[in-house]
Amino acid sequence: MLRSVALLGCLWGPAAQCVQAHEFWLTPIASPQAVGTTVNLRLEVGEFFTGEAAGFSIPTTRALRHYRAGQPAQELRPFLPAEAPEAEVALALDTPGTHLLAYDSTPQYITLEANTFHAYLHDEGLDFVKTQREQAGTANSPARERYRRHIKTLIEVGPNPQAVQALDPTYAVHAGQRLELTPARNPLALAPGDALPITILFDNQPLAGALVKAWHKHNGQLVMIRATTSAQGEVTFNLPYAGDWMVSVVHMTPAVDGDEEGVDWDSFWGNLTFHVPSRSLQK
């Protein structure tokens, strides 16, 4: 069950410029948490793994699902605020094991000038979109974009031995997101320096050649690791530090209903957050 906490940050809506073309994530929650603990889920929007509250609400949420081993997925969207967004929602962690939260947004819209759009494409490894615009003779025109967020976070509950964590299948649940990041190992069972393989799927197919970024703050300094997916949509990161991590990827396609909707491009922003415990906590 969820309960709301007052909004203290940036509102997410059509007029909220602060959220557009920025990373969007569920704040990582330190693991492990004790059984029976209540944690606050928080959506953040920003850059360089520094953000402010985006807020939860039914109008901006397509789905918010809670997965636990041995139980059916619970849809939490009906418990969100019906109108004004709330900064955080409280979630009771009443069962041991790995918990997965998967959030899908409703579509939002933005129009960017050509130079701004092309710079953002380059930053996200989407230069092929600029090439398509050049081939179509629209490279100097503003870009009308419709964007969606597909994000996940993982939480470990209970003093589970590392070997048991690794066997809990919840971390690898396919939530049916259009752009989905699925780890091949449980990130919550890793030690600093371990390898984390991740598969990126778009419309349930491997996404090849995508730029994927892993983000971390170490002693106040940003650490960002870049990698590109293989033909199988796979990428592997060696995560050198304990603490909060975010993995992100962006994909873009021409809008098939662009004339009706007044858009040229659909972008999809995938994200996965988790907390790697220190070695001492895993012994």
Give a verbal description of the structure.
- The protein has helices spanning 114-123, 127-136, 162-167, 258-261, 279-282, and strands spanning 2-5, 23-26, 37-47, 50-53, 61-68, 74-75, 88-93, 97-105, 108-112, 143-157, 179-183, 195-202, 205-206, 211-218, 221-228, 234-238, 243-254, 265-276.
- It is mainly β and 283 residues long.
- The strands form three sheets. Strands 5, 6, 8, 9, 10, 14, 15, 17 and 18 form a nine-stranded mixed beta sheet that branches.
- The longest helix is centred in the middle third of the chain and has 10 residues, at 114-123.
- The radius of gyration is 19 Å and the shape is globular.
- The two termini are 32 Å apart.
What features would you highlight for this structure?
283 residues; mainly beta; 9-stranded mixed β-sheet; 5-stranded antiparallel β-sheet
Question: How much helix is in the residues?
Answer: 10-25%
Mean pLDDT: 90
Q: How many domains would you count in the coordinates?
A: 1
What general form does the structure show? globular
Q: What is the subunit organization of this protein?
A: single chain
Strand element count: 18
Low-confidence stretches: 4-20
Largest pleated sheet: 9 strands, mixed
Q: Whole-number radius of gyration?
A: 19 Å
The number of helical segments is 5
Question: Structural class, please?
Answer: mainly beta
The portion of residues forming beta strands comes to over 45%
